[in-house]
Design brief:
Bound molecules: guanosine-5'-diphosphate
Strand order of the largest sheet: 7-6-5-8-9-10
Order of helices and strands: HHHEHEEHEHHHHEHEHEHEHEEEEEE
Structural class: alpha/beta
Largest sheet: 6 strands, mixed
Strand content: 5-15%
Shape: globular
Helix content: 25-40%
Radius of gyration: 23 Å
Number of domains: 2
Length: about 450
């Protein structure tokens, strides 16, 4: 049982054709070489301009890797440079720091990487122990981990001239109201070290800056593939996560006709209206023929797996008892209901908890169809990695049914929940979509914007 997971020369081509550099040694990151055995080939190919930008970035990362050692906290113009430092003299850094859940972290990290590419900065990540060992190193011959002896690791005192903290968290909305203004970018350009504090997918913001936009359009001719490509480049499950993912996949998902992923995030944790949410999921799934209606006999040779990602086990139990009672082995009608964990509560400071979250995001992304929860970046990451437009469950509090229960996403991009409202051109407050190019208001959160 299970599928062929052998990796030989015949499989190398896929790695080379994608966004990933071909120079990686295989054992250090098995998923980078095996993921195409689990995932359908993406219909979205990276542009050659994107690939060349990524290769340029990798060179920059390599060149600047150790340059920080010559930087001083207050002065980045080190006096005793050797000739070897010439190439590194202008090294500038963007340091990513983590906030909120894993989905939020991944969407802000992807945005940070794109900003680093566009501004010729080296991206370094300040992972605490809760983020250790989730992902492989993304850049060849180099590390993206912020070295412990990097200046400013401990001391984030704003009075130093050589760095600034960039607040792009939704709680600091007023700070990033001016981030997209040309003038702000000109000022930021001069600062050697930027420390990013963000939980947002701020890629649409980058599109509103003209000098960035022209590169972004060339890099991503198909606008809604940005996280899809950047995510596939950056986020490869570590060997530990890959072991968990592939073991689960082979046990439950490998041999079915269709995999339906249900991502069930409960924001109303006071009341946890499980039954109302389940009703919404069922009416969405029946309406769009994702799951068979129980009163009608199941078709012969149907084999579907329902993969549930949720902090709670109630959904699995209810769906399992519904379908178990109605399946018949003789006619090969099988609907399996599976869940990899049920953690009960969010615990984003715990490494093992994040490992499960990452594995489940990845497993969702391997499904053929997705039903996701409004406003959840956990679901956004899964859909974009999977190249899927999910059915998004309509937002509702309490027990009242909503009609329609769900809506198909316009695009697979994550939603930028809290865009700024400031129009730099005439210093006024505007409806955001009027200056965000290629965007619409998000289906699941009207204040937000997403690329389509
Ligand atoms: P969001 O809050 O829904 O936008 O998504 P985030 O990923 O940013 O934060 C939610 C966090 O709660 C996740 O990162 C996990 O730590 C936890 N969590 C929520 N749903 C699930 C789930 O289905 N499975 C697991 N393992 N953890 C979850």
């Amino acid at each position: 049982e299970g599928q062929d997971v052998g990796v030989g020369p015949k499989h190398q081509k896929e790695v080379v054709d994608g966004v990933v550099a071909s120079t990686f040694e295989e054992g250090s990151c098995i998923s980078r070489h095996q993921s195409h055995l689990y995932r359908k080939a993406s219909p979205y190919k990276p542009s050659s301009y994107l690939k060349s930008k990524l290769r340029d970035y990798e060179d920059l990362h390599r060149t600047c890797k150790f340059h920080y050692k010559t930087m001083k906290n207050n002065d980045t113009k080190s006096s005793n440079k050797s000739d070897d430092d010439d190439g590194a003299r202008n090294c500038k850094y963007l340091i990513w720091t983590s906030f909120d859940g894993l989905g939020n972290r991944m969407v802000s990290l992807a945005s940070a990487f794109l900003y680093a590419i566009l501004t010729h900065r080296v991206l370094l990540v300040k992972f605490q122990t809760d983020m250790n060992g989730l992902f492989c190193e993304p850049f060849p011959d180099s590390s993206w981990l912020l070295p412990k002896d990097f200046p400013h690791w401990e001391d984030q005192n704003q009075n130093q001239s050589s760095f600034r903290v960039l607040h792009l968290r939704h709680t600091n909305n007023e700070h990033y109201d001016f981030f997209h203004c040309v003038h702000t970018q000109q000022l930021l350009q001069k600062i050697p070290v930027l420390i990013l504090e963000s939980n947002q997918y701020f890629v649409p913001l980058l599109f509103s800056i003209p000098s960035f936009r022209k590169h972004l359009i060339k890099m991503f001719p198909v606008k809604d593939t940005i996280f899809h490509h950047i995510g596939h480049y950056l986020f490869h499950p570590s060997n530990e996560a890959w072991h968990f993912i592939t073991k689960f996949y082979q046990a439950h998902l490998a041999n079915v006709n269709e995999k339906i992923g249900l991502q069930i995030r409960v924001f109303d944790t006071e009341r946890k209206p499980h039954q109302a949410i389940l009703n919404k999921i069922l009416s969405c799934s029946f309406k769009h023929k994702l799951l068979p209606v129980l009163s009608s006999p199941l078709k012969n040779h149907t084999s579907k797996a329902i993969f549930i990602a949720s902090l709670y086990s109630e959904y699995r139990e209810k769906l399992r008892s519904m379908y178990m009672a109605n399946t018949s082995v003789e006619s090969n009608e099988v609907i399996g209901v599976y869940q990899a964990s049920h953690e009960e509560y969010q615990n984003s400071n715990d490494n093992k908890h994040n490992m499960k979250a990452w594995s489940e995001i990845y497993l969702l992304s391997l499904c053929d169809e997705l039903v996701t929860t409004s406003f959840s970046s956990f679901g956004y990451v899964a859909q974009s990695l999977g190249g899927l437009k999910p059915w998004i469950l309509k937002w509702s509090y309490g027990e009242q049914p909503v009609n329609p229960p769900c809506e198909e996403a316009m695009s697979m991009e994550p939603c930028f929940h809290y865009p700024p409202k400031h129009d730099c051109r005439n210093n006024s407050i505007v409806n955001v979509t009027s200056f965000f190019h290629y965007t619409r208001h998000c289906e699941d959160f009207g204040n937000g914007v997403k690329l389509v």
